[in-house]
Structure formats: C-alpha cells, structure tokens
Design goal:
Blueprint (H helix, E strand, L loop, with lengths): L1 H4 L2 E3 L1 H28 L16 H18 L2 H19 L3 H19 L5 H12 L8 H6 L4 H11 L6 H7 E3 L2
C-alpha cells in the first residue's frame, strides 16, 4: 500500500517526455548491437554491412511500435492527448511541424501493418520492418531471395532482439502514476 502512495505523479507532458527520451536512449544505446547481430547473422550469404550511424529507420520502427502501444495502454482520449504531445516533440526534434511528424509516424504504422498482415504481433511487425527498410532480402540465399521473404530463422532471432525495444508499461506503472 505504501508503494502506491509513493509513486511519482506525471502529467501527460511529463509522460510524453519520459516515453520519448526513453525510446531514443534505448535506440542510441542498442542500435550498434543490433547492427552487429544483423551484419553477422548466418542467414545472410554476405554481410549487409549496415553502418552503426544509419539508425533513422530503426528509430522510426521502434517509435511507431511503442506509440501503437499507447492505444492499448490508455483510454482513447488520454492516448490521443499523449500522442499529440509526442508528435509536437518529434516535430521539434525533426525540424518539421507536429502534423508532418504525425504523418511520418502514420506512414510507418500503415507500412508495418501491411507487411505484417494478417498478424497483429507488434514484435513480428518490427522484425519484418527492419528486414524491409534495410533491404536485407538482397543478402539472403537464392531460395529466400526469390520468395522475397525473410528467412524464418532470421525473423525469430530478430523477434528476440526487438522485444527489448518495447516499452515496459508494467514496470513504468510500478514507479509512476499518471494524472488524468
């Protein structure tokens, strides 16, 4: 009971700040390892040689996956308020308007839904999006290259990596309480 009384209270703006900064931090700290694992993956005939600096698409994939989780974590009205703040912050970081930042996120959401259809599994969508956005089909053996489909063993390894880039709402709510 004492734990609930001692939780730090956050406004929607503070939540958006913590959320976005946390996502950017994990991408900044983790992308180098992800790239190393992809570049050395045995599913590829030759290394994709993705440079560690090329994290823009990966960042968008992780941001989109986590923004999508807002809709299942919060009531619609609050999720929309938080998203609006996130789009404003992203727009500022990207040097574009909040409307343009939202359009970019929505474009990635549609892309991830399309390549993941009919599945609704966000981790799987993230793995497939990495495969597509980094043109990894070009580095597969002829069989999978002809199918234009990721090697299932590669996808399974990517799923195990990508799950670490999803926001842990259970841990978050143990520490914070959100103002409504």
């Amino acid at each position: 009971m004492l734990g609930t009384l001692l939780k730090k209270r956050l406004s929607d703006t503070q939540l958006a700040n913590v959320f976005l900064n946390g996502i950017f931090e994990i991408v900044d700290n983790g992308f180098v390892e992800v790239v190393d694992l992809i570049n050395e993956d045995l599913a590829f005939v030759s290394s994709p040689s993705i440079p560690a600096e090329r994290n823009g698409q990966f960042t968008m994939i992780v941001v989109v996956a986590n923004i999508s989780s807002l809709e299942t974590t919060f009531e619609t009205v609050q999720a929309n308020r938080i998203e609006k703040i996130i789009f404003e912050q992203m727009g500022s970081l990207m040097g574009v308007s909040a409307v343009d930042a939202e359009a970019k996120v929505r474009e990635y959401q549609k892309f991830m839904q399309r390549i993941n259809h009919p599945s609704k599994n966000m981790v799987y969508a993230m793995s497939k999006a990495v495969f597509q956005k980094y043109d990894l089909n070009d580095f597969q053996d002829e069989y999978f290259k002809r199918l234009q489909s990721p090697n299932p063993l590669f996808l399974k390894r990517m799923d195990q990596i990508m799950i670490n880039f999803l926001w842990d709402w259970d841990s978050f709510f143990k520490k914070y309480k959100i103002d409504e």
